[in-house]
Write a structure and sequence with these properties.
By secondary structure, this protein is of the alpha+beta class. It contains twelve helices and 21 strands. The strands form three sheets. Strands 13-14-16-17-18-19-20-21 form an eight-stranded mixed beta barrel, surrounded by four helices. The protein has a seven-stranded antiparallel beta sheet with strand order 3-2-1-7-6-5-4. A five-stranded antiparallel beta sheet has the order 9-8-12-11-10.
Length: 537
């Protein structure tokens, strides 16, 4: 059943790996298309805004010049000034004096020009005539802006006369006070007027058009540029033709890698099961030293696997596979069998020596492990003091079941250590509520002792916390005398590492313990003597 579930999960993972990159590529194609078209419409809106702002600036400047001149409105001097303003302005068609809705005199020659009905007047007093009638045509190509009795005539298409690579682009100038357009080329939806809000620019799609609005910094107006959504979709398709095949290729590659890795893992699972059947696993034991007496008081049992080809497989490789495929409990059972064969006779006669057994998180899901340890002690004659159980921080993810197992172990007198402290999921509340006995300081922190690494200060904090919680400490990965001295001075109880001995046979660890008992010889190596200086004595 577990195998079928694992196979099904692998297929789902491979399918996800296959589909995800093309889907992401399609999303990226759409994003790039949107960004490109939005940049295009924003450029158009800014062009319109620049031209319309400049038109209004020239109009107000011309009117201001006439008002300040003090000339009678239609005097020859005033007309001359009107013609000068007209000639020097790039956006104005004419400028003149208004009376009774007509341009009675202006920079143009001819009879008075009616302005038509007033469309609206802005808050700063500018009257807008959006449909100035001409005698020679029924069209209304001109609009007029009036203030202080003077008006300017502007060709309504001039501010919208920008270069565009999109032939059916819609352009407009929106007056924000009245939500009305004074200039329009193409399509405008009144609902767009509310989309700008208080922002300087806004880009959005209403399902039919991609629209960009840009607010004027000088006037209560905003320019609008809109392109049909078909242009966005066309660019998306062009991008997709470029990106999706690459995404599909990436998906095929990742899916193949997932299947290959799964196949390797499945083959490793089969090899693990075969290794258990064929007795390919064995134990090595790393000595544990009392830092204060120097005596070897125990050893950590480390599982090793040599496959049928004689190759050593790293525990970092096969332990996670065993955990993921429900085999790790069988490995724990095999560890106890091997330790029983290697050390059972010795433990029964040496109550002051212990073996540390590593448990996986799965071993803590029930109290079955307690029964295995009971049978181990019955079979070997070992005492509870001969055993220490080491639990990694991941074992506390299921806190209730872990607490039940730890309480059962304590009831039997078996002590418990938290392994690799500081590298996983533990918190202070775990340490307080689980009533642990030992805290193992991970080698990554020990390596930083005496260095300028950021973690060098962490060791002292961990030691202080352990003292506060009355936990005995084991330092792992001790490789030099400076580290050992640092730990000893700060009250760390035990240590293991290459300074005291590499993992090896149980007999080696047992001999170190016997030597300490028989001759009171310390297992802690003495520092090498300082080299004698060269030269004459």
């Amino acid at each position: 059943m577990h195998k079928r579930l694992t196979y099904g999960f692998t297929l789902l993972l491979a399918l996800a790996a296959l589909c995800l990159p093309p889907w992401l590529a399609l999303r990226e194609a759409r994003r790039q298309a949107f960004d490109a078209e939005a940049a295009l419409t924003l450029g158009y809106a800014h062009d319109v805004l620049h031209r319309s702002d400049e038109t209004r600036r020239q109009a107000l400047a011309g009117i201001g010049t006439l008002v300040r001149s003090g000339q009678p409105p239609c005097s020859e001097g005033a007309r001359e000034l009107m013609r000068e303003i007209d000639l020097t302005s790039t956006y104005l068609q004419a400028i003149g004096y208004v009376r009774n809705g007509e341009l009675v005199c202006s920079s143009m020659t001819g009879p008075p020009v009616p302005l038509g009905p007033l469309s609206f007047r802005t808050a700063n007093g500018i009257g807008l005539y959006l449909e100035v009638p001409l005698r020679t045509t029924h069209d209304h190509p001109l609009l007029a802006m009036e203030r202080d009795g003077y008006a300017v005539m502007v060709h309504r298409d001039l501010p919208l006369d920008i270069w565009s690579s999109v032939p059916d682009v819609s352009l407009a100038l929106l007056h924000l006070e009245y939500r009305r357009t004074s200039l329009l080329h193409g399509h405008f939806d009144p609902a767009w007027a509310d989309r700008l809000g208080e922002r300087a620019t806004a880009t959005f799609s209403d399902g039919r058009y991609l629209v960009t609005m840009a607010r004027s910094q000088q006037f209560m107006t905003a320019a609008i540029a809109a392109i049909p959504i078909a242009h966005l979709e066309q660019r998306s398709r062009e991008n997709a033709r470029r990106l999706v095949p690459a995404g599909l290729l990436a998906g095929l590659t990742v899916a193949a890698a997932v299947l290959l890795l799964a196949r390797q893992q499945m083959s490793l699972v089969a090899a693990l099961r075969a290794g258990l059947r064929r007795g390919q696993f064995f134990m090595e034991y790393q000595p544990l030293v009392d830092l204060h007496s120097g005596a070897c008081v125990g050893a950590e049992a480390l599982l090793r696997w040599r496959d049928g080809a004689g190759e050593l497989i790293s525990p970092d490789l096969f332990i996670p596979v065993a955990e993921a495929n429900g085999i790790v409990e069988r490995l724990t059972e095999r560890v106890l069998e091997l330790v029983s064969a290697d050390a059972g006779h010795f433990l029964a006669s040496h109550p002051g020596f212990h073996v540390a057994i590593n448990l996986s998180p799965a071993d803590l899901h029930s109290t079955a492990i307690v029964g295995l340890l009971d049978r181990f002690m019955t079979r070997t004659g070992a005492l509870p003091s001969n055993l220490i159980v080491e639990i990694t921080e991941r074992g506390f993810l299921h806190l209730d079941s872990a607490r039940e197992v730890i309480e059962a172990l304590h009831t039997r007198g078996i002590e418990v250590a938290i392994d690799d402290f500081g590298t996983g999921y533990s918190s202070l509340s775990y340490l307080e509520s689980l009533e642990l006995d030992f805290l193992k300081i991970d080698r990554s922190f020990i390596e930083s002792i005496g260095t300028s690494a950021p973690t060098s200060q962490v060791v002292s904090h961990i030691i202080g916390m352990a003292h506060t919680l009355r936990l005995r400490m084991i330092a792992e990965g001790v490789e030099n005398h400076e580290q050992a001295a640092f730990l000893r001075v700060r009250g760390v109880d035990y240590a293991q590492g290459w300074l005291f001995g590499k993992p090896g046979s149980f007999e080696h660890a047992a001999n170190l313990h016997r030597a300490a008992l028989d001759s009171r010889v310390q297992c802690l190596p003495r520092p090498a003597p300082a080299a004698r200086p060269e030269g004459p004595s």
